[in-house]
Amino acid sequence: MASTETPIASTGDDEIPASAAYIPAPDPDVVHGGHGFATNTGISNTKLGMWLFLASECLLFGGLITTYLLYKLPAPGQGPAPQDLYDIPFTSISSFVLLMSSLTMVLAVSAIERGDKERFHTWIVGTGLLGCVFIAGQVYEFQTFVEEGMGYTTNRASSAFYTLTGFHGVHVTVGIVMLASVLLLSLRGHIHRHNAETVEVVGLYWHFVDVVWILIFAIVYLIP
């Protein structure tokens, strides 16, 4: 009678059925989005959390922009309106500087994904410096407005203007702190190509800040 036993393939120490196919262990970076946490969306919890945070920020800035549009014209005799003091060429240069920081941020993310830490450091420092130039320009603009007689409490239009643009400036400052933190972690060897998503998440925040400024610049400075 013919034997029905499964042939055994010898591997030296152990014996396994020759018909058994080798199935490699799944890559945890693929299964769990690179951070050890699986999500139904196909992206990591870190990136999903950042997207949800930015969605809430859209509502916040939407409310601030709407408030400015409602109160951008002060009552007669309450001091100058923001529109009377704008220096469009100066603000345009500041806006261009901030937009260029989005380009350097993209280059920084690309560099770390390639494992090129030297260029990553260069581009991340460049992004932070451009952000600092923008903040310096905003501080100079605020100081000029105050000297021209438009303080925060001068009228409802000035309050709405300073709240909106100042709140955006705070976001840029937070972004600069995040960039500095990522640079410090990289210098200590904690950021590399295998966890480049950390830099990508910071980049999402930075790009959001830039896009919001485009809207603010167009609505506040360019639309009469």
Mean pLDDT: 85
* Uncertain segments: 1-36
Rounded to the nearest angstrom, the distance between the terminal CA atoms is 98 Å
The CATH homologous superfamily: Cytochrome c oxidase, subunit III, four-helix bundle
**Strand order in the sheet with the most strands:** 1-2
Overall morphology: elongated
CATH architecture: Up-down Bundle
Q: Per DSSP, what share of the residues sits in E-state strands of 2 or more residues? A: under 5%
Tell me the Rg in angstroms.
27 Å
Describe the structure.
Helix content is 66%, strand content 3%. It is mostly helical and 224 residues long. It has one domain (44-222): Cytochrome c oxidase, subunit III, four-helix bundle (Four Helix Bundle (Hemerythrin (Met), subunit A)), CATH 1.20.120. A two-stranded antiparallel ribbon has the order 1-2. It is elongated, with a radius of gyration of 27 Å. 25% of the residues are buried.
Key features of this structure:
224 residues, mainly alpha, Four Helix Bundle (Hemerythrin (Met), subunit A), two-stranded antiparallel ribbon, 6 helices
Summed up:
The protein is mostly helical. It has helices spanning 28-31, 45-71, 88-114, 117-147, 156-187, 197-222; strands at residues 8-10, 15-17.
Furnish the topology, listing elements before pairings.
Blueprint: E1 8-10, E2 15-17, H1 28-31, H2 45-71, H3 88-114, H4 117-147, H5 156-187, H6 197-222
Antiparallel strand pairs: 1-2
